[in-house]
Design a protein that fits this description.
six-stranded mixed sheet, elongated, alpha+beta, three-stranded antiparallel sheet, single chain, about 15% strand, about 45% helix, 12 helices, 9 strands
Length: about 375
């Protein structure tokens, strides 16, 4: 019975760590954003640079995946179990803090694949810590599944596989898109509140500046073009049913008009160039972007650049790239959720996501005709 219990705990612990690490590795940018949320909660966001948070993201996913695989194959049992015990102890302490301080609503344990509340995260970590203690107590009861002569293949293969998955997600896009804006998703359906449910009440405010004075405005009293856009924020002022897509809005940067419905209801094709922050965007592919914009104009398709950057950043981007396409304002978190690339390109039709591309593999105009027949 003890042997059975030890190995059930080993398999449960190994599978959970493997799946958790894999989910993070598939979407390293998403894990980076979650880490930055935690850092912001403790006041370290200004100290830790983006590349450092990204390095931590890849390191965390690789460590979890590797520990999980080694547990499942019972390789280097004592060393792996000591590392697992330490890891689960740290994670349990962090989850206690999360429950008390509530810095984020979702821990990000499984990326966007599985969402857990802070309470569920704490319960999960307590169970896994108990499993780790049980397995460490009787580690000799773990059966070695492979002879020692070939055991080296497993950790090396797991390490290279995990790093390759992360590299693909960073250079292109995640292998699996767990977010509500995946290819084939209907944005309008994702924004719909089921009949009988009351939606949350959201308030979007825009921070604008004029003559050195900053003020906050809503869509109802959005000022004229003499004001400079600084930032925007959306807050929930009354709880209710929250649809998968609850913060998607597009505001024309010139007129201040909300054109969200116009965009998602357009029965033709619409190209959305996504850049949460233009000042951080990779500008090396502006020639390919311009070619796609010219293609859109030629075929009378809509083309918008969605960003949360201010007017100065937009002007700098225009000067740098010669961009002539219209710019619209959208919340930065929403843009990061839509696509893990800065910039990235999304093709939609009648509210449905038809295609998504990283700036590293933007489509050629001749391939867009094939894309439209899909």
């Amino acid at each position: 019975m003890i042997r059975l219990l030890v190995n059930v705990c080993r398999i449960l612990l190994g599978l959970t760590l493997t799946l958790s690490g894999l989910a993070k590795a598939i979407d390293p940018r998403g894990t980076q954003y979650k880490i930055e949320d935690y850092l912001g909660a403790i006041g370290l966001s200004a100290i830790v640079k983006d590349w450092q948070a990204l390095t931590l993201s890849v390191t965390l996913s690789t460590m979890e995946f590797l520990l999980g695989i080694l547990l499942l194959f019972a390789i280097r049992r004592r060393l792996v179990l000591m590392a697992t015990l330490l890891f689960m102890t740290v994670m349990t302490v962090i989850s206690i803090w999360i429950v008390i301080a509530n810095p984020v609503s979702d821990c990000g344990c499984f990326g966007d694949a599985i969402h857990l509340t802070n309470g569920q995260t704490l319960l999960k970590n307590i169970v896994l810590l108990g499993c780790a203690i049980m397995v460490a107590w009787k580690s000799e009861l773990m059966p070695a599944l492979l002879p020692k002569s070939i055991q080296w293949i497993v950790p090396n293969g797991a390490l290279l596989s995990c790093l390759a998955i992360s590299a693909w997600g960073l250079y292109y896009l995640p292998l699996i898109d767990f977010r509500p804006y995946h290819i084939g998703a209907d944005i309008r359906a994702g924004m719909t509140i089921p009949e009988g449910e009351k939606g949350p009440t959201l308030l979007t405010t825009f921070i604008m500046e004029k003559d050195g004075e900053r003020k906050e405005f809503t869509l109802e009293n959005y000022p004229d073009s003499t004001w400079t856009f600084i930032d925007s924020k959306t807050v929930e002022i009354e709880k209710g049913y929250e649809p998968p897509i609850h913060d998607f809005s597009i505001v024309d940067n010139e007129s201040g008009e909300d054109i969200t419905k116009q965009v998602v209801n357009d029965k033709g094709y619409t190209f959305l160039l996504i850049s949460p922050y233009l000042e951080q965007a990779d500008s090396r592919h502006f020639g390919e972007i311009d070619a796609i914009y010219e293609y859109a104009k030629e075929h009378r398709y809509a083309f918008y650049c969605l960003t949360s950057s201010n007017d100065k950043a937009i002007a700098d981007w225009k000067d740098l790239t010669g961009a002539e396409y219209p710019f619209c304002m959208t919340d930065a978190t929403t843009l990061k959720t839509i696509i893990r690339s800065n910039p990235g390109l999304v093709l939609i039709r009648n509210g449905k996501v038809m295609g998504k591309w990283s700036h590293h593999n933007l489509p050629k105009t001749n391939s867009l005709d094939k894309q439209k027949t899909m």
